[in-house]
Amino acid sequence: MSIFDFFRRKRKVNQDIPDTGIAIDQAQWTGKDFDFLIKGDIEISPDMYDKIMTPDSFEWIKIVKDDWTYYQVGQDEYSYSWEIPGIQMTFNESIPFHKAKQIANQVVEKIRATGQDAQLVILDKLKIQSFD
């Protein structure tokens, strides 16, 4: 194999995580380790917001704390922040990664069902993130 063939080789890339070249073990993560970003030019009307931005496989309730809306799922909760590149989902510190990911995946699928493009990106809180 020549040096040029080495650089032309395609690497397998996880669609959910930007490729940093470092393997990340998310199995032990909790909400203190990650946030999610739902990328896309997304518009959701206020009357459809709760229907689209909540999971179907978990019971949830909407709560307001300190003038901020949260969605409570069992003992866990999450909230949204609209940022320039998309919608940031922030979870409580103790939620297991797999539960949060299941919630986020369902929300993304509901957004896609409206005909809008949405992609889920995992943000590692241990690394400095920039929305540039």
Summarize the structure.
The protein has helices at residues 3-8, 49-52, 97-113; strands at residues 34-39, 61-65, 68-73, 76-83, 86-91, 119-124. It is of the alpha+beta class and 132 residues long.
The ordered string of helix (H) and strand (E) elements is HEHEEEEHE
Instruction: Please report the distance between the alpha carbons of the first and last residues.
Output: 38 Å
Name the poorly predicted regions: 1-22
Q: What's the count of strands?
A: 6
- Gyration radius (Cα, Å) is 17 Å
Strand order of the largest sheet: 2-3-4-5-1-6
Can you tell me the overall shape?
globular
Structural class: alpha+beta
What does the average pLDDT come to? 83
Helix run count = 3
| Biggest sheet details | 6 strands, antiparallel
Content of β-strand: 25-35%
- Helix percentage: 10-25%
Word description of this protein:
Helix content is 20%, strand content 28%. It has 132 residues and is α+β, with helices and mostly antiparallel strands. A hairpin with a 2-residue loop joins strand 2 (61-65) and strand 3. The radius of gyration is 17 Å and the shape is globular. The relative contact order is 0.25. The model is unreliable at 1-22 (pLDDT under 50).
